[in-house]
Amino acid sequence: MSLRIGxxxxxxxxxxxxxSGYSDVSMRRMARKFGAPYTLNEVVLDKIVLQKGRQQRxxxxxxxxxxxxxxxxxxxxxxxxxxxxxxMAEAGYDVIDINFGCPVRKVLGRCRGGFLLSQPRTALDIVxxxxxxxxxxxxxxxxxxxxxxDAPESRGNFFEILDGAFDLGxxxxxxxxxxxxxxxIGPSRWSxxxxxxxxxxxxxxxxxxxxxxxxxxxxxxxxxxVDGATIARGCIGNPWIFxxxxxxxxxxxxxxxxxxxxxxRVIADHYAELARVYGEAKAPVMMRKFGVKYSELHPSGTxxxxxxxxxxxxxxxAELLQRWYDPVADWPPVARRGGVGDLVAAGASLTECGVx
Length: 356
Description:
Helix 1 packs antiparallel against helix 11 (260-278), helix 6 (120-134) packs parallel to helix 7 and helix 11 runs antiparallel to helix 12. The chain has helices at residues 25-33, 46-50, 54-59, 78-91, 105-109, 120-134, 152-168, 190-200, 214-224, 240-249, 260-278, 283-294, 301-310, 314-324, 340-346, and strands spanning 3-5, 8-10, 14-16, 39-40, 44-45, 69-74, 95-100, 140-145, 172-176, 204-208, 228-231. By secondary structure, the chain is of the alpha/beta class. Helices cover 46% and strands 13% of the residues. Helix 7 links the parallel strand 8 and strand 9. Strands 3, 4, 5, 6, 7, 8, 9, 10 and 11 form a nine-stranded parallel sheet that branches. A two-stranded antiparallel sheet has the order 1-2. The chain has two domains: 3-249, TIM Barrel (Alpha-Beta Barrel), CATH 3.20.20; 260-324.
């Protein structure tokens, strides 16, 4: 089962979402290692793309083997979107994605992200300018939530933007089944995704929200009819989910959860990528946020989570790997990660824009 985004043909319909603070090159490499056919860089502000400095250099560096990759843009001023999109396309991003979905209050207060779902004219002006700037070179896509809230006006604005964006020539739309007002509270309304797909017919729609297991991903496609899905929180510290999705799509049994030894090897690779890109001094601290999520797969997850949080140096990280991922130790069986119900019951933290 494949997925097409413009001229880009993907051999699997499950992709890694743009995740603020997470989906850098190190995480993207881990996702690709386990079969993610397409990944998105974390969302970036258009102004930062245009402002000379370290952040601009990092954003506009796309490594030769990091393809296909989407660059997600967020901002408030239509004038800034086109040159930022052009810069990202020139840097090597294969798709330009426009964020109309971020629900973080700071973002909304600056009239960005999900706020633009209340401003159809401005949103479509942004889409028009980005397509004019890069449409002949790169597919343009949009990321949306189902509206600012559940008021009829919000629903009307959503479909005005969705229809207008497709009429202008976007290659695909990713739709998250929560409203902006919900932020990350409550379930993603998959019935709305089904309605959207029926509405747009043969145009490409990707679903988003509440995808924490491979079974969730398959179920979203079956229940809603969407063409693909973007996996967000479900793949942080769990790149194995892409291999699991591929197995189920191909009619094979679900693979066993990764052993403690396998987890340790992947975490070591992830850390090596962080050290390569950001330097050995920064890598241990940067690894903590990923380690906290990797720890959820470990038989001693709570204690390991605390150990990751305490890491400050490369030596401490090496000690952590040796202690908690000893390949010859007699570890208890590894349990598979739970679905959305388990996360809600555990009170999962949902604070990052794009981490949904």
